[in-house]
Fold these 4 entries.
Entry 1:
Amino acid sequence: MSVDVTLRPFRPAHLDVLARWLAEPHVARWYPEPEANLSWAANPPPGGAQAIIAAGDADVGYLRWQHVDRATLDALGLYEIPANSVDADILLGNTANVRKGIGVAALQALTAEICRDPTVALIGLTTSVANVHAHRAFEKAGFRITRQYDPNGLGPCHLMILNLQRTQTPGERPT
């Protein structure tokens, strides 16, 4: 059975539901700083955006993303990642919605949105090496583990990348 998954605009009224989701044990394990995440959601940085994941008529999760600058990438030791790549984070707020393809569909919708910007070469996700369920979902959405690193002391994480293939149209000059 297929569920219709869409990305809806995040509104200030969603902060309460996001706070509840961040407190859920299956989410809190991977998002250990709920106040920092709520602060980001209340005031996204320049180049940052966010959405509520809806399955049918129900709000079921949260997705955020931002363009990453060279200085940030270098500070994390991610020298091979091009500037203006997009870093994304995703969560599903209720365990009843996990392993139903909702996260995969949400990441595919995000990819379609980001592909509209021809300057973005790739989308990256960082997830704990222990979060094997996320690895499988991200792989189904086209992401691949490229390496392991420790971002800002969060412990061993996998960097998962989706390269956005750009094809040249006839008559177009390469950039």
Entry 2:
Amino acid sequence: MDHNISDSTFQKIYTFLRTISGIHTRNKEEIRTFLEAVCYLCRTGCQVRQLPRKYGNCFSIYQRFLRWKKKDIWRKMFQEFQDIDDEWFMIDGSVIRANQCAAGYKTGFKENLGRNRGGFSTKIYALSDALGNPVKFILSPGNDHDITHAEELVKDLRNTKIQADKGYDSEKFVAFLKKNGCKALIPSRSNSKKKRVFDKHIFRERHLIENLFSKIKHFRRISSRFCKTSSSFLHFAGALLWLR
């Protein structure tokens, strides 16, 4: 079988999974086949029933993926491999278009679907470190404004610098950062009466978080939403980015 996940990357993930209680990890080859299947779904964005037979029963694989999601394994995996450069942090949001088949779920907006000028969409908010590596993800309906989830993104950060664009220019948010000992590297909007002073040399590195969104959208199941539920494979993709 051709592998989408390298041997070294799989070995690190498998070592981590061995520390998780409540899942079966004795059969190493079975675990690898399952992870390869999840990676294939994430990369191609194909429907679960279109998963190649070499990976096994497609519905059993997806049910296992959901069980791991309920156990919070994917998020723990994402956090396990982080090696954060905390010199400063960056936040931003990006819209992903939702296919028409994603609509119609009973819980509606609880599944992070919203309507804006481009139609149904979901928005990904990301917190990255100084090198543009992913630290945290949040999903919301696509019609939410960026500032809506800003405090939730950075609530655990203390005594550091937070870099963001003009969409986050809010006195309330800046006061929240100051309360936590953080310095806001956020340019003021053109109509602001009092211009905020910030380090423009650090702000030049802002392209790194844009690059992060570009990398994460190489996973087609993330760049285009086809699922009715918002289990978007983000944490698994983020873990793979850290392990590259």
Entry 3:
Amino acid sequence: MLTRRVAVIGGGWAGLSAAIEATLAGAKVTLFEMAPQLGGRARSVEIDGIVLDNGQHILIGAYIETLRMMRTVGVDVESALLRLPLTLVDPAGRGLRLPSGPPMLAFVRGVIGLRAWPIRDRIALLCAATSWAMRGFECDEAVTVAQLTRRLPANVRGELIDPLCVAALNTPAHSASGRVFLRVIRDALFSGKGSADLMLPRLGLNQLLPGPAQSWLAASGASVRTGCRISSIERVESAASAWRVDHEVFDGVVLACSASEAARLVQPIDDAWAAVAARLGYEPIVTVFARSAGARLPAPIVALPSNDDTQPAQFVFDHGQLGGMPGLLAFVVSGAARWVSNGADAVRDATLAQGNAQLASHLRAPLEHVRTLTEKRATFRCTPALARPPSTIAPGLMAAGDYVSGPYPATIEGAVRCAVAAARIVAQQQDR
């Protein structure tokens, strides 16, 4: 049987995963990435001699495929990631801490242990979770997270539901899909032992997958071409599923680039698919890096009280507890469209003021701004009944990415799972 030639267009985590999986399946892979480096929206950048991630990404125990990809390319997951039970605490150290053990029991014990909430509020959350479970974690596709949780007490929504929603879907609860939120809750909190565990990077994002994957692919005979933007994809009429990528012919293609780039390439082939991809809306994420010598927070990640007016950040990461620079803090502003419209200076100043006020007991000196990084198209807006393009475009031509139709929001695991499935199809097309 002849070795199949597979093109992967895009070198983010989806593209890297597709290239790895196709290589494992025996294909001869060529990966094209238009940026000078791999990693896409989850990469490290060097600024003024300091290496920073372009966003603070959290993995969880349920990210089975992502962890498999990392292990495949030689990453020691146990040392590269700090694993701890789901912990969602405020600057005073109060909040949800799930103990170890069976998922349902751990959730019940964690909620009962929330002493800062009145017992009636804890019971209300447990009753809501039980109701969701009895309905199979399903709801009408038109329901928002705010509508889904409207009967919960205000502090439960403000201190738990809203932060979880914006962290998982990067979309505010009032406009986020209730159905997708429930799927995330099911898979993260109740799918198996350790599924809800936080897995926080101790290394820069480049060291978690992009760098090791590039070395592994080269050693496995794949070709990786950075700084290479594809102009066009055309069907080879003499073959059922062959495609010409610029001037090269491949037996199969995985489009693992952004939705807008995929729409540009697909438009001459399937205008309807391209139109759906092009219509997706986006939410930005802003990360404000700041430092204060000697600062140490009550947990590696802390949830911050936030609002739309003066307090932008929902979470802050303590890099000193993650093996990074002591005193370096990363404030994350998700669903940041309003703040981005106000300008970088506004979000920087508001975040520093918020941090100095809310973390005052943990700071020995006022926060010093290091850098503000903005991903304007960090994720698609995960709204109810959202139309997302399918993975299959045509025989031998597949799309892969966090935006492709599926049950999950824009997460690394969703992108990787989609990429793995697409790679298996194009690498084995002739056998189907």
Entry 4:
Amino acid sequence: MFPIATNLKIIRTPWATYAIIGTNVFIHLIVAWNTNFVIPSEITGSLGFIPASFGNLSESHTLVTCIFLHGDVLHLSGNMVFLLVFGRLVESELGVTNFLAFYVTAGIAACLAHLLMIPDSSVPLIGASGAISGVLGAFFICNPKTRLTLVLEPILIYFLGRFTIHVPTWVFLPMWFFLQISMGLKQPVSNVAFWAHVGGFLAGMTMSISVSRYIAAKELLKKHHSHN
């Protein structure tokens, strides 16, 4: 099942989300233009995050560069749809600057979670899915009762006789989260960085809870001053 929409309306133009999507598409076009839009191995080797090489401080830049690289068009488009669906709404909660900082921080946290669970891996980690998992975590905290529109898999379309279903966030995202843990435990070595997804999601939840408490305290302080 693949989320394509929510029942929430976008109040403000999500410039940061659009900028991140545009940057990812532009970078992929530049680096993969001459290789049938499949990223060259030399790019992933130099700019992807490799846990086994992370002891070298000269490789620390890959914590960020890997977030903006994708293996192929399918990898890119899947991640960008997730970001478009959830990122616009999280950005409306955080604001442009805070969202950009949040996104990069979640991506770094995802890389570190991947490092913690698979420290000896020499396979480059690339993709925005860790950072986007952070966005999902924040969305879960901020909008648990929101209804998501999901596109069904072909076999479910056949049996249910419909292309989409509507599911509450509090049902879908926990299911997605525990699926990542399950797949990470079953497939320690995989082309999908399940532990990066888990780490990003937890980081997103944690940051969102912290920011929510800060905003609530700030609003309470404003009301106190206004009554005085």
